[in-house]
Amino acid sequence: MASRGGPRAAGTDGSDFQHRERVASHYQMSVALKSEIKKLIYTHVGIWLLLLAQMSVGHLKLLSHDQVAMPYQWEYPYLLSILPSLLGLLSFPRNNISYLVLSMISTGLFSVAPLIYGAMEMFPMAQQLYRHGKAYRFIFGFSAVSVMYLVVVVAAQVHGWQLYYSKKLLDSWFISTQEKKKK
């Protein structure tokens, strides 16, 4: 078209190459979704570490049970929820579809299912707290059932968005796979 310092070709201003420099939309979407999922995974790791700390303090009796209550039953299987997050992170470098699918399935089993069980397990104690105003377990002066319901609500949103974005990412990966097969 034109040399570096010389005259331009007739009929062009030199900007007619930009249409070839656009990145395909599914690649742009893949990068954006990976970023969002990483943020959610890091948030999940933060929640997971808080639960691990609460469970460790409760079992090792580092503080009295008046300060930090013993963990609820749903918290034990929820500790396995770190595995789906690791699988999700492992799927990113090479767009590994099988790791992402395993991450999504295991998120349902190890993350969402314990949260549902936890909501059901704590429901009678929450009813007692809100009907009669009596709480028997505490975490640093707050009702343990209230604190743990807050954790369940936040974690359910994190895992729900993580599954949603993972599904969209999986779809974008399938689009790029189909385009590669066409060539």
Automatic annotation (TrEMBL):
Highest taxon above the source species: Eukaryota
Subcellular localization, as worded in the UniProt entry: Endoplasmic reticulum membrane
GO-annotated cellular components: endoplasmic reticulum membrane
Major place of residence: endoplasmic reticulum
Pfam families per record: Jagunal (PF07086)
Family matches, as InterPro entries: Jagunal (IPR009787)
Biological processes per GO annotation: endoplasmic reticulum organization; granulocyte colony-stimulating factor signaling pathway; vesicle-mediated transport
Membrane topology: Multi-pass membrane protein
Transmembrane segments: 40-56, 99-118, 138-158
Keyword terms, alphabetized: Endoplasmic reticulum, Membrane, Transmembrane, Transmembrane helix
Protein family per UniProt: Belongs to the jagunal family.
Protein name: Protein jagunal homolog 1
